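Could you please consider the sequence and fold following this short note?
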Amino acid sequence: MNYTKTYEEMLSDDRKKLFIDIRESEEFEKNSPPEAVNIPREEFRERIDELPKDEPIYLICYSGKYSDELCEELSPKGYEIYSIKSGIYSYYKYTIEHQLSDEEEQEKRCREIERSIIKKYRRDLWSQFTKAINTYELIKDGDKIAVCISGGKDSMLMAKLFQELLKHGKKNFDVVYLVMNPGYNDINYTTILNNAKLMQIPITVFDSDIFDIVADESGSPCYLCARMRRGALYSKAKELGCNKIALGHHYDDVIETILMGMLYGGQFQTMMPKLHSTNFEGMELIRPLYLIREESIKKWREYNNLTFINCACRLTESCASCGGTEKGSKRAEIKELIAELRERSPFIEANIFKSVENVHLNAIVAYKTADGEKHHFLDRY
């Protein structure tokens, strides 16, 4: 039996009905359909007695996975129950498409989004963006930069920041807003396209079959997938005449990478603000969000009521269905650790960030140079 219904089909059901969002309460509070009530999945089975049998019930989760499972369990028990196809992203898609249907409203929304970057979040977003560009010399005269957009909050903000820089800064460079489709499902791909239209970002889209290639990998495909995606972006950017690609890694990514290397890799290194490509001659990678805190990006997103994709990888949808692929990962553990340390001292994160700028080689037992050669303190003792 097919228990799935689209979000539009749920809205068109004129009968009295119960619409339940089974995501975690925190996610429900951030953004949920106005018609929905919240019963978190962890509590759902304990509260089955609250469900009516004389009216239809619609469930929505992250991807549709858990709502499908509950429908299969409860339908034989006499409930008329349905799962919203594609989960919360179907609601996001519906919302954005309705905004796009009104050109005047769309134009107004875009101007508000841009104004919030320059005005309300000037200190936390715009100033930190321009500071990183100047501090690390990320842009040179004549650069052509491929601003790489994955569809998440970080890369979409980065694209808008580049647009504002072209409006208000020196027009000494050119950009291409580059979107790669490695095999996204329809709902995620449409969400990316709709957000780009809403925010008036003129994207260049190209397709690849990376998800298909890594699908047969044993174990986690994430490392191989990430390397292949970066290689594809470099290749397409070079084809378009670019000499740099810009990625949306932020301040929190940097400090998490430092700690992950120490605690799980036994090494001391950081995520660099820029680096030369080893496989694509003449190409560089830059990270203009290097000084921007993730919390600031989230506040900007929520202030503007924007909805972006989290993890669009169809190979890890079982993870994405419970709130994102980072849950249970080493990076998630590091995030939790940093949050705990922050409770003890507000300077922890800044100190982690600065630690890689204050390395004293005479207080290091051993280190490696760029050519891989290892140097030991006894060599010069």
Q: What stands out?
A: The first strand starts at residue 4 and ends at 5. The first helix runs from residue 7 to 12. Confidence is low (pLDDT under 50) at residues 317-325.
